[in-house]
Amino acid sequence: MTTTAPPRPAAPATPPSPPSPGRRVLNRLLRWWRQLTAMRTALMLLFLLAVAAIPGSLLPQRSLSQTNVNRYFAENPTLARWLDRLFLFDVFSSPWFAAIYLLLFISLIGCVVPRAIEHGRTLFTPPPPAPRHLQRLPENAVLATPLAGPAALDVVEEELRVRRFRVVRRDGRNGPEVSGEKGYLRETGNVLFHLALLALLLGLGAGKMWGYEGSILVTEGQGFCNAAQQYDTYSAGPLVSGGDLTPLCVDLEDFEARYEENLTAASYTADISYDVDGGQPVATTIGVNDPLRTHGDRVYATGHGYTPQFSITLPDGTAFTDLSAPFLPSDQGTMLSQGVLKVPDLGAGSTEQLAIEGFFAPTGVLQAGLLTSVDPRPLDPQVGINVYTGYLGLDSGLPQSVYSLDQDLIDRGALTQVGRANLAVGESTTLPDGTVVTFSGFREFAAVQVSHDPGQVWVLGAAVAVLVGLLGMLLVRRERVFARVVPGPDGGGTVLSIGSLTRGSADTGPRFTALTDDVGAALATRAAQAPAAAPPLSEEAPPS
Amino acid sequence: MIDESLARLSDTFFTVAVVVYSLAMVAFCAELAFGRPARSRQLVGAGAPVEGASAAGEPARARRLGSVAMLLTGLGALAHAAVLVTRGMAAGRLPWGNMYEFSTVVVLVAVLAYLVLAVRAPELRHIGVFVLGPVVVSLALIRMVLYVEAGPLVAALRSWWLAVHVTTATLGFGIFFVSGIVSVLYLVRSRRDERAASGAVMAPSLLDRLPSAAVLDRTAHRTAVFGFPVWTFAVIAGAIWAESAWGRFWGWDPKETWAFIAWVVYAAYLHARTTSGWRGRPSAWINVVGLAVMVFNLLYVNFVSTGLHSYGGV
Which of A92, A123, A154 lies at the terminal end of a domain, its last residue? Predict the structure, then answer.
């Protein structure tokens, strides 16, 4: 995971006697570690990670939609069972996906930690001594000057300091020399980038451990509290216990969906009032892109729909009013919705249970006797319903959807269809036994989601650090410049050699030329000021 | 709400842009055809002296054609930009709210990225026909398959983050587009060089007018280096937006998954270029795979799978 592998020390020559078993194991482990932290391995793991993520987008995932997974199981029973054994419906929480990214991160640690230590040491040590043959560096030049050696090096040092180089002077074996280095931020960025990726993974993990998420459909006028058993769906990390949930209660006062002329949804807003720990209720509005954030929890309105209301009058005059159940939109464009109202208890003495199943259309139109909707706004709300009586199976112990009837019960005759009608608001239908079912009105519901993720602030911080590190790594160039002076060939003046080594940019030529031009000009100025005792400056001698 | 006449004007500009780009492509072709260095002509024995060959070994006629091609590309880019400006004005919003608009912006970014490259390093001008070819084909497909009438944004997109996330995503995509094309050219060119070096007799080809393999490789790398932080930022901005729009910052929605895959592939590309055994052709292949992933992400995720990123008709 590093841009260049640091040079590895060559393996020591094996002694003639066979190594002890302990040493052999150690050597083997060491070799595995080196292999794992080698760049080539990291590259392979990166490819594996990319490939491993692909089935997560091609196959339905439980984390996204349990319904789609169920449908896949129904359509390909045998194949689905096998895929499930390979965790292919939970790719991103599967052991093999975790194995890949954990190996990748171990490889990353093994690569970046030594580099971080090495870089830390570099920060506190002066630039390295100049190499012996400066003319072997990718960029180099030789300047002759009448100035004395130290004075010429002074000029180079000034030019480098102006360019914010860190500079050191030494008396090397081949003469007095200057080493300059800058661009330490490049390696800092590299280390920061890789460590920040690690921090990002930890933040993600923390969120999975201590986070929770619940969602519920709330009809206008109703409310809920932040407790696992109240939610329609709820998931929590392994370290969350029921008592950890923020004591938050939310009431939905009003929900409004606004549309453009062409029926594009323009906005959804939910007026809610909430209280924390039984405190003073606070009124606020949430909507698309605009959740409520309080006490580390976030409350979202993620969807909406209609809840038709019915009243039922039994033949004996007993009336049930305001019976309602949310109908789920089956078409987001027209908000034609489907659902069922289950009435398990029709008062004392009645063993019969009743269900009203069918469609709700906010702007209903009958097409060949079938109800459909032409507008998502409630301009002419209608329902198309089938009424069943019999046994709903709610106490059978088998889980069942609250949004549909169990077709099995109808097939077995436990539920009998006793009526069918298309009704506008206020209209009613009379069942054969004299029961009157009235479509009394509707309300809107909001799908509300409460989320808690203590890791996400850390993830954000880490992501910003990743970006900063990346910019440092890709934009800063590390430059080293070396210069050395030797006395001129004819005994007068000095010959100055400069060489540079740059990492991170291909266009180093012009920068080096600018540096040598400036040094040459400064040398000339300095020589003119100094008592002229030497031969005139020759601009740029050919490389020796 | 929607200014119909402006929307129609936008569609007209689209046609103009495609036509002008096509003309530019023809001019680039002609430049390559007439601009063969005199040396290679003599090799095939055409024999006729090349008139007005400049000191750079490039006939004046070819240079003129090249300038015309560059000018046409610039004009095409202006018309292309006008498509988006007029559409944005017609709908009263940023013109990248659906797939038609998004892909149109991506292609514009690619053209602009090419223009920047060609102005900074004139030898890269010669890849023009290989950039404008895909550009014209993409635009034609966008117009035929993805076109939707100008309309208002869906509720979820009405956020300040649209400007941040989608803009940077199109920028990153457009830059990777050019980088991928340059890598393809590098693969073609280096293969040709290898065969020539192994002594195979090669018929002269327009490919000889491409920049050298080293230049192509370096250009592909540098554009990808520029695109990578932009793409990283786009993904981070998307996550921040998703946190307030969808209730979580990352949920492995198909688009997110493929954005992640693309990120990993480009990270692999940048690493591979400094890994021994992967320099040169293998790493160029990774860059090409990266572009394929980007295109797949655009097409597959919006057409085949259903995810949270399915917006605005398509």
Answer: A123
